[in-house]
């Protein structure tokens, strides 16, 4: 039986890959700090939780044990994290490091976290220039996330080990601490009869289903090598498409108020408001043999079912991120005055 170790395996991407590998007959070790975050179905399917802190000396070695056919690192944010992994990779068949599309820069050097939004001139390929690698800035800082990810990628890719770097976009799935679709799910739960969308809902920020990421990780594990791959859904819905997918699935109807540039600032905010849009080119993954589990509308159901069936929001839910998207008082004022 093949053995996989998933660092950060209780999180959004980690639990999806754990489920996928367990269903494929793998022995899966799920590494996290808090056993209460271990999904019950992953335990039932045979996943073994190992408590270890990646930041503690010896934590990684303890988690890896006698080696593995596959290590998936969902917790590699810096070059230092990557270097900590290297001494353990002699006994690992294939390693997958989860990076991010946040590494890409446009012709002017802008990226998804810069003050000026990036303007890519089409679907982004893996050959697109990236941020300059940096280790002198906190990876939790706005300018630090992508730069530290690039530095981590380079350490692993230069190591000589068989490392696949995956660059997902906006991830959706069960267990998300920032489930973007909440902006519409809560609105349905609140029985709002109107939906406001900034920029006419034309914004695009390519979704990446955790289940599709898991499928690509399995493909990479079957083809050990050294490479970088984008990872996003096979289709690219805009915010209006996404709102309609969610409303249709939840059986809700609302009046769409598609705002233009003259609308009051702060109305119709949503997580996909990127113009020009962000699209990842998925042809390299396809050439490796990757087949997605499904399109956005098919795969987002996992997150929607989870959100509507949960009696409370997940631990770590990012309330501050969503709060400005639910300014119902401002919306009602706008409607009364129009
Ligand atoms: N989510 C996205 O939209 C997105 C987009 C692009 C790239 N990515 C990348 O994808 C990777 C995974 O993201 P995710 O969204 O799946 O993360 P997540 O949902 O926050 O999951 C992270 C998991 O790791 C565990 N963990 C955190 N710190 C740990 C530590 N020091 N030692 C051991 N376990 C630890 C957490 O559980 P405990 O706290 O209980 O330990 C949690 O279950 C990240 O590298 C991120 O940069 C994410």
What can you see in these coordinates?
- This protein is an alpha/beta fold.
- It contains 13 helices and 11 strands.
- The strands form 3 sheets. A 7-stranded parallel sheet has the order 3-2-1-4-5-6-10, with helices on both faces. A two-stranded parallel sheet has the order 7-9.
- α1 (12-23) links the parallel β1 (3-7) and β2.
- α1 crosses α7 (210-222) and α4 (79-85) packs parallel to α5 (144-157).
- The longest helix has 14 residues, at 144-157.
- The model has no long low-confidence stretch (mean pLDDT 97).
- NADP nicotinamide-adenine-dinucleotide phosphate (NAP) binds at residues 8, 10-14, 31-34, 37, 52-55, 74-75, 77, 98, 100, 168, 170-171, 177.
Descriptive labels:
338 residues, alpha/beta, UDP-galactose 4-epimerase, domain 1, seven-stranded parallel sheet, two-stranded parallel ribbon, 11 strands, 16% strand, binds NADP nicotinamide-adenine-dinucleotide phosphate
Furnish the topology, listing elements before pairings.
Blueprint: E1 3-7, H1 12-23, E2 27-32, H2 40-44, E3 48-51, H3 59-64, E4 68-73, H4 79-85, E5 92-98, H5 144-157, E6 163-168, E7 170-172, H6 182-189, E8 194-197, E9 207-209, H7 210-222, E10 227-231, H8 239-249, E11 255-258, H9 283-288, H10 296-299, H11 301-309, H12 319-322, H13 328-337
Parallel strand pairs: 1-2, 1-4, 2-3, 4-5, 5-6, 6-10, 7-9, 8-11
NADP nicotinamide-adenine-dinucleotide phosphate is lined by residues 8, 10-14, 31-34, 37, 52-55, 74-75, 77, 98, 100, 168, 170-171, 177.
């Amino acid at each position: 039986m093949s053995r996989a170790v998933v660092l950060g395996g209780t999180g959004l991407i980690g639990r999806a890959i754990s489920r996928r590998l367990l269903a494929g007959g793998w022995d899966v070790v799920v590494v996290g700090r808090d056993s209460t975050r271990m999904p019950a179905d992953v335990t039932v399917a045979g996943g073994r939780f190992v408590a270890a802190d990646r930041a503690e000396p010896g934590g990684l070695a303890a988690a890896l044990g006698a080696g593995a056919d596959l290590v998936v690192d969902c917790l590699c944010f810096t070059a230092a994290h990557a270097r900590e992994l290297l001494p353990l990779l002699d006994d690992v068949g294939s390693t997958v490091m989860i990076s991010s599309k946040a590494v890409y820069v446009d012709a002017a050097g802008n990226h998804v976290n810069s003050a000026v939004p990036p303007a890519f001139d089409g679907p982004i390929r893996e050959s697109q220039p990236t941020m300059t690698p940096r280790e002198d800035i906190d990876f939790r800082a706005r300018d630090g996330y992508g730069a530290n990810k690039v530095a981590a990628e380079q350490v692993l890719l230069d190591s000589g080990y068989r490392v696949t770097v995956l660059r997902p976009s906006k991830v959706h799935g069960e267990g998300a601490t920032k489930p973007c679709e909440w902006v519409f799910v809560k609105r349905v739960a609140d029985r709002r009869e109107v939906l406001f969308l900034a920029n006419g809902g034309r914004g695009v920020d390519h979704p990446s289903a955790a289940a599709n990421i898991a499928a690509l990780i399995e493909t990479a594990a079957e083809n050990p090598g050294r490479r970088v791959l984008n990872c996003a859904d096979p289709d690219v819905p805009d915010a209006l498409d996404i709102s309609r997918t969610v409303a249709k699935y939840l059986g809700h109807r609302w009046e769409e108020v598609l705002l233009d540039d003259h609308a009051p600032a702060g109305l119709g905010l949503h997580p996909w408001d990127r113009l020009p849009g962000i699209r990842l080119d998925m042809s390299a993954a396809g050439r490796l043999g990757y087949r997605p589990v499904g399109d956005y509308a098919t795969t987002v159901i996992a997150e929607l079912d989870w959100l509507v069936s949960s009696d409370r929001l997940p631990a770590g839910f990012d309330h501050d991120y969503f709060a400005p998207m639910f300014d119902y008082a401002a919306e009602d004022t706008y409607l009364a005055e129009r």
